[in-house]
């Protein structure tokens, strides 16, 4: 009897301290928190899932989410890319994301119901509130609700603003979780469903969409810059003179034209038509300060060939900037800046 009492007391102490395997109620302190804790293991191969073709728009997102251990297939050989996602599944992914960032391992041990360990972790770490999801964890999660969960899974400092998004067609101050949605748009995690940036916040989110989003959460290099707003062009388009400094060792770079035109939302739109190599990082600077202009930087890589770079700047900021420098940078230059490996295009600030 005494032995049983001793064992019961010991188990109670372990539970209170969170030492039992699978409780996972608090983030681990064994490893420093940070984005460096996310690593792809290279386990995804073409054909891993028979319903994810290599040329699908979401293939890279599925591959990354799988290799990061943040998503699994719906079966051993299928992903079900157009399947819905339940609240329980979304909480599971958000908890995995937070725990990995915090230095912990995915050592969650499922109980009954299977998702309870993830819910407990999310509640303990501020990802989830007790009054969230009153409809139950078996319901399909909406796109807005998913944005709310994911925005809470990483510190805001890991979601810096890289996109200039002034408005979203179907999201305003009355939209549930609108602040979380805008945060992820600004961070390049969300880009919208069309050229206007429409979000459809009340629609159920699909697994292929979630895979792409969670991959961008964990890997900043996959985030997308949206350099233009949803404003409407007004007034006349003005041609601008440009100066090109080409220090690319491979491939030519030619500027065909550059224009600026006001929008009806307080921004002006610059359009640079050019021909250049593929895979360059674009950075837009205020030349006077050499500072990144309004955090406008696109790491996704130029498409190659003839293309157009379109970006919007607030009228006041564009007017204060005397000269804008657009830099097209090679990976070699980013790793080791030198006199070569870049192309700079200089153009004047905005004059009304």
Describe how the helices and strands are arranged:
Blueprint: H1 2-17, H2 59-67, H3 87-101, H4 116-124, H5 143-153, H6 178-186, H7 207-218, E1 238-239, E2 243-247, E3 254-262, E4 267-278, E5 281-286, E6 291-298, E7 303-314, H8 315-320, E8 323-329, H9 331-335, E9 342-348
Antiparallel strand pairs: 1-3, 2-9, 3-4, 4-7, 5-6, 5-8, 8-9
Tell me briefly what this model is.
This protein has helices spanning 2-17, 59-67, 87-101, 116-124, 143-153, 178-186, 207-218, 315-320, 331-335; strands at 238-239, 243-247, 254-262, 267-278, 281-286, 291-298, 303-314, 323-329, 342-348. It is an alpha+beta fold.
What does the radius of gyration come to?
24 Å
User: pLDDT below 50 for ≥5 consecutive residues: which ranges?
Assistant: 1-23
Oligomeric form of this entry?
Answer: single chain
- Mean pLDDT value: 86
Give the strand line-up of the largest sheet: 2-9-8-5-6
SSE topology string: HHHHHHHEEEEEEEHEHE
Number of helices: 9
Fraction of residues in H or I helices: 25-40%
Shape: globular
User: Based on helices, strands and strand pairing, what is the structural class?
Assistant: alpha+beta
Question: What percentage of the residues does DSSP assign to strands (E)?
Answer: 15-25%
């Amino acid at each position: 009897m005494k032995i049983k009492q001793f064992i019961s007391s010991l188990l109670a102490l372990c539970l209170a301290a969170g030492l039992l395997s699978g409780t996972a109620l608090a983030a681990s302190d064994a490893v420093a928190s940070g984005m460096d804790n996310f690593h792809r293991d290279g386990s995804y191969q073409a054909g891993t899932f028979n319903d994810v073709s290599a040329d699908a728009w979401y293939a890279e997102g599925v591959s990354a989410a799988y290799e990061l251990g943040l998503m699994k297939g719906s079966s051993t050989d299928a992903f079900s890319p157009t399947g819905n996602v339940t609240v329980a599944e979304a909480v599971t992914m958000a908890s995995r994301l937070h725990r990995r960032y915090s230095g912990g391992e995915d050592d969650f041990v499922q109980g009954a119901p299977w998702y309870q360990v993830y819910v407990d972790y999310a509640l303990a770490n501020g990802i989830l509130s007790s009054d969230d999801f009153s409809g139950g964890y078996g319901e399909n999660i909406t796109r807005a609700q998913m944005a709310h969960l994911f925005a809470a899974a990483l510190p805001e400092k890991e979601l810096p603003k890289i996109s200039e998004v002034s408005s979203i067609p179907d999201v305003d101050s009355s939209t549930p979780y609108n602040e979380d949605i805008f945060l992820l748009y600004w961070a390049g995690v969300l880009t919208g469903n069309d050229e206007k940036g429409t979000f459809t916040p009340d629609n159920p989110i699909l697994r292929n969409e979630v895979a792409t989003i969670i991959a961008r959460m964990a890997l900043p290099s996959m985030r997308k810059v949206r350099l233009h707003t949803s404003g409407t062009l007004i007034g006349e388009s003005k041609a601008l003179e440009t100066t090109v400094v080409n220090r690319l060792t491979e491939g030519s770079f030619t500027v065909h034209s550059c224009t600026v035109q006001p929008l009806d939302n307080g921004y002006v739109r610059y359009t640079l038509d050019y021909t250049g190599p593929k895979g360059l990082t674009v950075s837009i600077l205020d030349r006077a300060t050499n500072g990144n202009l309004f955090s406008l930087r696109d790491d996704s890589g130029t498409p190659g060939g003839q293309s157009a770079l379109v970006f919007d700047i607030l009228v006041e900021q564009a007017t204060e900037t005397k000269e804008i420098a657009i830099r097209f940078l090679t990976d070699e230059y980013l790793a080791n800046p030198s006199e070569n490996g870049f192309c700079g295009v200089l153009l004047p600030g905005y004059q009304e």
